[in-house]
Write a structure and sequence with these properties.
305 residues, alpha/beta, TIM Barrel, 8-stranded parallel β-barrel, 8 strands, 52% helix, 13% strand, globular, binds dihydroflavine-adenine dinucleotide
């Protein structure tokens, strides 16, 4: 119930205007988001890499509605990749891209062209690109774009969401050699016709999908803060004889930072998903929906100026 109310607000432009206009303390920005600008992103990335972590950077923004905004998102990614290369933060840092930020909803060919430009720049910078996965109406389109990008850039990865009923089949399809799959539980409000609704069903699906990826020839990226998921992944890696460099853990910036460092010290690759930029509303609301405890923190921050 709580989750669906918050996720409904996440999709409401009226709620977005209200919250974005409210005075918001740096506390929220500093905890879950690297900051508003490229310099913040590069500084935080450098610190995380210094702590033995890997990074994937997300320039905040989604559901772009104008060609100018889509172009601006592409240009920011190009600047980001230049910045990462200049600061010698690649290949430990890569980028995560939402096709909706590049205009997927109104011109998918253009979005693909922009994603391709980002892949070219990432290749020059010596790093990789992972496509985020958004709501289920975009899954087919995102996987089609992925397939075409991978013809020229075989290292492009994608996120798959265990809450979708289709994802086990997608994992089978994409578990081949060279494939980089980020397995997450899924962060959007989805109908029962396409998605498991209970935590237990989602968790069971996650484990089935993980088994497929760990048994396959690709590179599984286990994106979860769930201690049981982490323990099962460690177990499956042993079972399928995968060494520490044949899969990785991924967690969000600001979530379980001690666990991120603990796993890295154990020798695992741990990649932190680092968002930056000013369009934080949708991202923050999904974090609130995942964890009611974050709501009190957020409410305090809204009141604190
Ligand atoms: P879940 O929310 O199910 O919680 C399980 C347990 O984990 C909790 O009971 C608690 O023990 C622990 N836990 C969770 N959050 C915690 C916290 N803040 N502090 C302490 N303990 C906590 N989604 C999507 O739809 N598309 C995408 O492209 C991506 N991309 C992505 C990248 C990365 C790197 C990550 C980590 C996640 C995503 N997601 C995503 C989000 C994902 O789908 C999911 O919504 C969140 O990760 C929450 O699910 P979890 O598996 O982390 O645990």
């Amino acid at each position: 119930m709580f989750r669906s109310v918050i996720l409904a607000a996440a999709g409401s432009s009226r709620a977005e205007r209200l919250v974005q206009r409210a005075p918001i303390s740096r506390g929220v920005v500093n905890r879950f988001i690297a900051g508003s600008g490229l310099d913040d992103a590069l500084r935080v990335t450098g610190e995380l890499i210094g702590d033995g972590l890997a990074v994937t950077l997300d320039y905040l923004g989604e559901d772009t509605t104008t060609p100018a905004d889509a172009e601006a998102a592409r240009d920011e990614y190009l600047r980001l990749l230049d910045g990462l290369a200049t600061a010698e933060l690649t290949p430990a840092a890569e980028v995560s891209v939402k096709l909706s930020a590049l205009g997927q909803a109104f011109d998918v060919e253009r979005a693909e062209e922009y994603a391709r430009a980002i892949c070219v720049k990432a290749t020059e910078a010596g790093t990789t690109v992972t496509l985020d996965m958004e709501d289920h109406t975009t899954t087919d389109s995102t996987l089609e774009v992925l397939a075409r990008l991978r013809e020229d850039f075989p290292t492009v990865g994608v996120a798959l969401q265990a809450y979708l009923r289709r994802t086990e089949a997608d994992c089978r399809e994409l578990a081949g050699g060279g494939s980089r799959i980020r397995l997450c539980k899924g962060a959007y409000a989805e109908p029962e016709s396409v998605a498991y609704q209970t935590r237990l069903d989602v968790d069971k699906s996650y484990v089935r999908c993980m088994n497929i990826l760990m048994a396959g020839d690709g590179y599984p990226m286990i994106a979860s803060h769930d201690p049981r998921v982490v323990a099962i992944a460690e177990d499956r890696a042993k079972w399928f004889d995968r060494s520490c460099d044949e899969f990785e853990f991924q967690m969000l910036y600001g979530v379980r930072p001690e666990e991120q460092r603990r796993l890295a010290k154990e020798g695992y690759t741990v990649r932190v998903y680092v968002p930056y930029g000013t369009q934080w509303y949708g991202y923050m609301m999904r974090r609130l929906a995942e964890r009611p405890a974050n709501l009190a923190f957020f409410a305090r921050a809204l009141r604190s100026r």
